[in-house]
């Protein structure tokens, strides 16, 4: 079986790194990789050549039984893929409502890495958590770059400087990594999450947990936020406004699968924040948690810098690619039986990721 790795057009990451090649080969897979695919992630073609065939994009699309990428390929290229082939990417079918129909019309099977169930069994394949961890770390660094103040306490001959205050909204994977990073840099950190279960994790990292009572339980939401009542949201906004008005950095991470991200920082809150403060909106690609944020843009509102970016993992392409490649390897391992691709409908992980045709297990 041939697995083809394509170069990303708007991303420096690569879906498969050289360190993983021998393990793919052990599964009975021949690897085809596009020329220059790993350059943005610091991997040259020579590093792939020992275990893979480095070739053109056209040859890979035409000959690979299984195509893999980080972002989906274009509609034009999808039409070039022979019928019956399988494609693994981050298709986000909950947000791209048309992608399922497109692949089905072309006779292609789609497996979406972002649809893999976020369960203990699938933890080693959970690309959302891997990339969220990178994004949470990078969010603090991005904020620190724009902040006109130190993060840690500084004691100098000229006087003492107080540590900056950081508020994290959402204590999932990205939020927890942001907390850990901000604490390492010496900031005072507070964190809010609708899940009271997150309190212990937040406090274990040395941050203060901000409680707002009355939240809906989201135990079964797969790591995403859930929609809350209007009463709760009003109390939440009041508490967030109070905390944000005193914060130097606010990082927001809340996304609701298949729906617009909830507004956590409205313009009224931004108006009360200190000049020079920074907000990083990690949910900007799905509407944003911050009123006025724009995806992949940095804007200024009343002296507050708002960084809208849901793709911060791509700013650390070497380590992000390693993590994605490892997730991909663990996923592909359950797809391969004796060197052949087998989509087992009985497997809950495959069933969760396979979105192009009904895959309910037979009774």
Q: Unreliable stretches, pLDDT < 50, 5 or more residues? A: 358-363
Largest sheet: 7 strands, mixed
> Mean pLDDT across all residues, rounded?
92
The figure for the number of domains is 2
Q: Could you say what the CATH architecture of the largest domain is? A: 3-Layer(aba) Sandwich
Q: Return the CATH topology of the largest domain.
A: Rossmann fold
Fraction of residues in β-strands: 15-25%
CATH superfamily annotation of the largest domain:
NAD(P)-binding Rossmann-like Domain
Elements, N to C (H/E) = EHEHEHEHEHEHEEEHEHEHEHEEEHEEH
Give a count of the beta strands, DSSP E runs of length 2 or more: 17
Spatial sequence of strands, sheet with the most strands: 11-10-9-12-13-15-14
- Rounded radius of gyration (Å): 22 Å
- Quaternary organization: single chain
Structural class: alpha/beta
Cα(first) to Cα(last) distance is 31 Å
Count of alpha/pi helices = 12
Helix percent reads: 25-40%
> Under the CATH scheme, which class of the largest domain?
Alpha Beta
Name the overall outline. elongated
Characterise this structure:
The chain is α/β, with parallel strands linked by helices. The protein has two domains: 2-115 and 317-353, NAD(P)-binding Rossmann-like Domain (Rossmann fold, 3-Layer(aba) Sandwich), CATH 3.40.50; 132-315, NAD(P)-binding Rossmann-like Domain (Rossmann fold, 3-Layer(aba) Sandwich). The protein is built from twelve helices and 17 strands. The strands form four sheets. The protein has a seven-stranded mixed β-sheet with strand order 11-10-9-12-13-15-14, sandwiched between helices. The chain has a six-stranded parallel β-sheet with strand order 3-2-1-4-5-6. Strand 14 and strand 15 (304-308) form a beta hairpin. Helix 6 packs parallel to helix 7. The chain is elongated. The two termini are 31 Å apart. The relative contact order is 0.14. The model is unreliable at 358-363 (pLDDT under 50).
